[in-house]
Amino acid sequence: MRKRKYISVKELTSRTFRTFNLSRQWTDHLGEVEVGATILIWGESRQGKTSYAVQMAKAFAMGDARTLYMPLEEGPSLSFLRALKNAHAEDARRLMIAPIEMRFEDLDAVMAERTAPDVVVIDSIQYSGINYDDYRSFRNAHPKKTLIFTSHADGRDPRGTTASSIKYDAGVKVFVKDYVANAGSRYGGGKPFEIWPEKVAEMELE
Questions:
Q1: H/E/C letters for each residue in the chain?
Q2: Of 58, 89, 121, 166, which sees the most CB atoms within 10 A?
Q3: What structural domains does the chain harbor?
């Protein structure tokens, strides 16, 4: 048997880990997100998931991460364009939108390109058609790439076995309801994020 090389606590605690340069608003919400993280966002329909995912994509891009958004569910629809405009996504020069024909299985080739993205948003798991093995295969091949998934929900849980399995892997888990995103994160944070403050204020008055 080959001799094992153990790691001392001192050696481990002296290591540094790369994190994203997010704004204070986002670190208060998500914490100091590590490069290579998986983030899962889920919620029922018409709760603000896509608007939130677009705002998150913009935050990573504004923090100098090349970010690719794959709108598999909505495509270049009016509602998706409205989410981009409401988020002023045009300010984020490093945010790119994938062409409608691009699928999850194309990402391996994309990662070989010189200008490969650091962060990929897949909206949504259900429309991507992937299973958990597909996710693990990509994650093992590209451990330094950060993946952000949106998912449909059944009540307070992600819908389907793939989304449920990815939830356990995710370093950041975000449940969206009534235009408010609540994050559980291994990286700190925890402050609720109001996706659409005007809508939240209207609902509080009802």
A1: CCCCCCCCHHHHHCCCCCECCCCHHHHHHHCCCECCCEEEEECCCCCCHHHHHHHHHHHHHHCCCCEEEECCCCCCCHHHHHHHHHCCHHHCCCEEECCCCCCHHHHHHHHCCCCCCCEEEECCHHHHCCCHHHHHHHHHHCCCCEEEEEECEECCEECCHHHHHHHHHCCEEEEEECCEEEEEECCCCCCCEECCHHHHHHHHHC
A2: 121
A3: 18-205 (3.40.50.300)
State phi, psi for 107 to the nearest 5 degrees: -70, -30
Integer Cα distance of 153 and 4 in angstroms = 44
CA–CA dist 181, 157 (Å, integer): 14
